[in-house]
Amino acid sequence: MARLTMANVPSAAAEVIKRHQMEAPVKVGAIARDLGVAVLISDLPLAVSGMLSRNQDDRTRWTIRVNRHEHRHRQRFTIAHEIAHYVLHRSEIKDELVDDTFYRSGLPERIEYEANALAAEILMPWPLIRQLMDGGTATAAGLAEALEVSQAAMSIRLGLPT
Fold this sequence. Notes:
Helices cover 46% and strands 15% of the residues. By secondary structure, it is of the alpha+beta class. The chain has one domain. It has a 4-stranded mixed beta sheet. Helix 2 runs parallel beside helix 3 (72-89), helix 3 (72-89) crosses helix 4 and helix 6 crosses helix 7.
């Protein structure tokens, strides 16, 4: 499977994302807002991390819902994951896409892989990781704390065992 990078993202969306990757932590809510996507922290079933849905009143508008019962780091990754679906896959989504806690939606595995990869690119961009490391943050735990992601997600991003 080819590696997904920001080069695979439509240029207008890539510009919005990059604008918010200048300092840690990346503001995923601001990215969604600037893309025209609302974000709601919602009471969702425990097995559901988040969902991306087309608004019923205005079919051109989209909303991300995130499970309020999940850890903040998990919520941030879910928002980034749903942003990725919006940017990369919204033409393939009819009305809504529900991601369970393993980020499985019933769509082809490739689509979930791409959404996870872009979510990591959004939350943990390499230039920001290098900037933090150059500033003295040298551990996966320290980077995870600065970027407000889980240590497991940061370790995966760095290619370390989890």
